[in-house]
Design brief:
The protein has helices at residues 18-36, 59-69, 91-101, 112-122, 136-150, 167-179, 195-208, 218-222, 242-249, 256-260, 283-287, 293-311; strands at 48-53, 74-79, 104-108, 126-128, 157-161, 182-186, 212-215, 227-230, 268-271. It is α/β, with parallel strands linked by helices. Helix 2 links the parallel strand 1 and strand 2 (74-79). Helix 1 (18-36) packs across helix 12. The longest helix is centred in the first third of the chain and has 19 residues, at 18-36. The protein binds phosphoric acid mono(formamide)ester and norvaline. Residues 57-60, 130, 138, 272-274 line the site of phosphoric acid mono(formamide)ester.
């Protein structure tokens, strides 16, 4: 590999320069081609990966386990009920112990601070598989999927419709503004991303040339979109907010009428999944020909393999 990211953690995409993200995407495309051509490698032979999950997961867990295992590595799944993390032992101490036994660690959970502590104290690469605030490995798969569709990220108009301050929207803001994709958040004002994150992404955009917009207007926001992206109205851990979210987000459902407001026929639909069909997106859009959600899900595996390959 022509670049050196050895020993690096991925806690948010802020941690990586545009060039480093470019390289991770190049490796992702390469490992996908290898997989499709049956070129089986054993690059993780003798390596171990700890998979810490406080929250549920299908894609992230399976992507890490299969990407690591098929190259000869040994992934160990540890749920919140299995280990002491923050319960009978401090996160710092658990991190130090895991760092003595594993070559890398994935963490999915609530507080972003937990994944930061794991990285600080374990001494091995730590990957954020989703916290309340960020979901960086998801966004690499999303960017890869957009590249497969449009051949590039520069100037592609990606519009996120829905809960504009959740982990996925936050990470898309960083990923798009760093890589030159145009990114618009369409959300009710109460669910706009933080000013701090918006300012940061505008700063990244000033280097990459991407356009960052935010609006509560569906009509103006989705116009000319090449990608419409949405996520659940109620993220894991926010179940108490369900009623309020449904009221706020009902008008923002991605359905046939919203897709038509883009004014383009070839606009694609993306969703990190899992989806609540009939809420954030209608059944016909998720199942329709514009939907790329299954490619996006598959690309979780290739991008995660690329991240591990680059960092251990
Ligand atoms: N998109 C995603 O992270 O899916 P899981 O919650 O199934 O891991
Ligand atoms: N925003 C969602 C993403 C799930 C992959 C959640 O945090 O539940």
């Amino acid at each position: 590999m022509a670049f050196n990211l050895k020993g690096r953690s991925l806690l948010t995409l802020k941690d990586f320069t545009a060039e480093e993200i470019r390289l991770l995407l190049d490796v992702s495309h390469q490992v996908k081609r290898e997989k499709k051509s049956g070129n089986l490698q054993r690059r993780f032979l003798g390596k171990t990966l700890a998979l810490l999950f406080e929250k549920r997961s299908t894609r992230t867990r399976c992507a890490f386990e299969t990407a690591f295992g098929e190259e000869g590595g040994y992934p160990v799944f540890l749920s919140g009920d299995d280990i002491q993390l923050g319960a009978k032992e401090s996160i710092e101490d658990t991190a130090r112990v895991l760092g003595r036994m594993f070559d890398c660690i994935q963490f999915r959970g609530y507080k972003h601070e937990t994944v930061e502590k794991l990285a600080e104290y374990s001494g091995v690469p730590v990957y954020n598989g989703l916290t309340d605030t960020f979901h960086p490995t998801q966004i690499l798969a999303d960017l890869m999927t957009v590249e497969e569709e449009f051949g590039s990220l520069k100037g592609v108009k990606i519009v996120f419709v829905g809960d504009g301050r959740n982990n996925v929207a936050n990470s898309l803001l960083i990923g798009c503004s760093k890589t030159g994709a145009d990114f618009t958040v369409v959300a009710p004002e109460k669910l706009f991303p933080s000013d701090e994150l918006l300012n940061l992404s505008r700063e990244y955009a000033s280097y990459s040339g991407s356009k960052i917009d935010i609006t509560d207007s569906i009509e103006s926001g989705v116009k000319d979109a090449q990608v419409i992206y949405t996520d659940v109205w109620v993220s894991m851990g926010e179940e108490k907010k369900q009623k309020e979210r449904y009221e706020l987000l009902k008008p923002y459902q991605v359905n046939k009428s919203l897709m038509e407001k883009t004014g383009r026929k070839e606009t694609i639909f993306m969703h990190c999944l899992p989806a609540v069909k009939g809420n954030e997106a209608s059944f016909d859009v998720i199942e329709g020909k514009a939907s790329r959600v299954w490619d996006e899900a598959e690309n979780r595996k290739h991008t995660i393999k690329a991240i591990i390959l680059a960092t251990i």
